[in-house]
Design a protein that fits this description.
With 277 residues, the chain is an alpha/beta fold. The protein has a single domain, classed as NAD(P)-binding Rossmann-like Domain (Rossmann fold, 3-Layer(aba) Sandwich). The chain is built from eight helices and seven strands, in the order E-H-E-H-E-H-E-H-E-H-E-H-H-H-E.
């Protein structure tokens, strides 16, 4: 408890999923939180749940004015901004490259990439004068590898990894750290809608993910991502910047449910098919 005492955070896409989990955790750890989302009812309900430690601001991340307004609201309500968590996202455009509608591509890129850019830009605007701050953005394993997500999603998440490195190289000179998180498919409503067809079926999604996880019988949870965000937002990661932290059970480093190709002992294989020393 108290890992974020005295800090103020703004979180986009905070009315549900990773964002709501992080908002609750950040407040539990002592932070004040500005909740940004287009889901007004959910966002207002979460703010009421969190009490005086939270304020809801309607925020469409495709609008620079909305993202700037979320940052300004955090500063106006709580006096400063220490943490910007660019979390808002959707699955977006789905399908083969030759049938992807340009309008759906543009909207997906706007939400993921432009929304993250606006968050970084306006967080920097208020953090630079104070010479301190932590910016955390949502990437994905689809931003590190190919074949794990739809094309627009993959492109945006790769771009967020690159933007994180570039902005970190600039803002480190102002005492501001910039990092990202790259989850695999986690047990959230968005993944549930794909996995089970019911965005409310979190338990069914946990079972399905656990059955094909490299970590035996262990699904990825929203709390895993929230805990990663907490560490990157806190002073505990004070010497970490420009980094993309995976929460993926080792998927991006080659772990699979089946195990490695050479998992049983056999005499070493040498030239011309010879075996042993």
């Amino acid at each position: 408890m108290g890992r974020l005492d005295g800090k103020v955070a703004a979180i986009t896409g905070a009315a549900s999923g990773f964002g709501a989990e992080a908002a609750r955790l950040f407040v539990k750890e002592g932070a004040k939180v500005a909740i940004g989302d287009i889901q007004t009812d959910r966002g207002e309900a979460l703010a009421r749940e969190l009490g005086d430690a939270a304020v809801f601001v309607r925020c469409d991340v495709t609008s620079e004015a909305d993202v700037a307004g979320l940052v300004d609201a955090a500063v106006a309500k709580f006096g400063q901004l220490d943490i910007m968590y660019n979390n808002a996202g959707i699955v977006g455009a789905v399908g083969p490259i030759d049938t992807t509608p340009a309008s759906e591509w543009d909207r997906t890129i706007a939400i993921h990439l432009s929304g993250t850019f606006y968050g970084m830009k306006h967080a920097a605007r208020v953090m630079k004068p104070r010479q301190t701050g932590a910016i955390v953005s949502m990437a994905s394993t689809a931003g590190i590898m190919g074949g794990l997500g739809p094309h627009a999603y993959c492109a945006a998440k790769h771009a967020i990894v690159g933007l994180t490195k570039n902005v970190a190289a600039e803002l480190c000179h102002f005492g501001i750290r910039v990092n990202a998180i790259a989850p695999a498919g986690m047990a959230t409503a968005m993944v549930a809608s794909i996995t089970t067809g019911d965005h409310n079926d979190i338990e069914g999604t946990i079972r399905a993910l656990a059955s094909r996880s490299p970590l035996k019988n262990r699904a990825g949870l929203a709390s895993d991502v929230a805990n990663a965000a907490l560490w990157l937002a806190s002073d505990e990661s004070g010497y970490t910047t420009g980094h993309t932290l995976t929460t993926d059970a080792g998927t991006t480093t080659g772990a699979t449910p089946e195990g490695p190709a050479f998992k049983d002992y056999e005499p070493m294989i040498r030239e011309a098919g010879q075996r042993g020393l």
